[in-house]
Amino acid sequence: MHSLRASSTREAKDKRLKTYVLYEGLHRWIAFGRDPEKPERIIDTNQYLIRDGDRSLILDPGGIETFSSVLGAVICHARIDQITDLFFSHQDPDVASSLGMWDEALPTARLHAPWLWEGFLRHFGCNNLTYVPIPDEGGTIALPHVKLQLVPAHYLHSSGNIHVYDPVAKILFSGDVGAALEAPDAPMFVDDFSAHVPKMTLFHQRWMPSNRAKNDWIARVRKLDVEMMVPQHGRIFRGDDVKKFLDWFEALEVGIAVRHPGSSVLASKPAAA
Q1: What's the pTM value of the predicted model, to 2 decimals?
Q2: Are 232 and 201 in contact (CB under 8 A)?
């Protein structure tokens, strides 16, 4: 059982998404991202698949525009009948607007998502999937070889927000925390933390509304043994860069729009890789 690090992380290309095996043991973590055919004005997203025997879980499967490329990438690693679970960290369209298509493709699967958003998420279409509401205090998802921990991350940035921690692989899926807005061909992993900071700063200052919520999340995460932090946007953090991120985020003042009206992340083009 082992994690795959910088020198040994395997990368393979299908027609669109790049695919990275992050961990391989009795279960596997696989990351998908960097879609070169993504429409220009749609934010880039990362998707993650946890494959464990005949169970497979997709984390934040993405928007309607990326459904076909994500499905095509996932079925290279799991048959359609083995995709048994979906997880939505929150309700944003870049996380969940593909829900209606997954509902048709996976009619017997389970959707794990914050209880707060069920009535909202059903607007995207959820007639077949079984909605499994996650309480505010979090919970677990039990797979054959690992019990995933559901970590509260409320107000980061959504008022009902959950992250996923794998205590075996020591991977934390951190949703929008750790995100960066970059060019579609940017590297998948942080290789120079200091150089990466400017790509994250305004996103976190503007999208994250509460310093109290931020510090609560940091305290929770510091208690976990995290070797890799994988966000929904931007690059993956490994090893010491996880601690560097927590230290940086702790010192950052967030919620700046209240004091700086007119500040806009979307008005700024993604930084070059």
Answers
A1: 0.89
A2: no
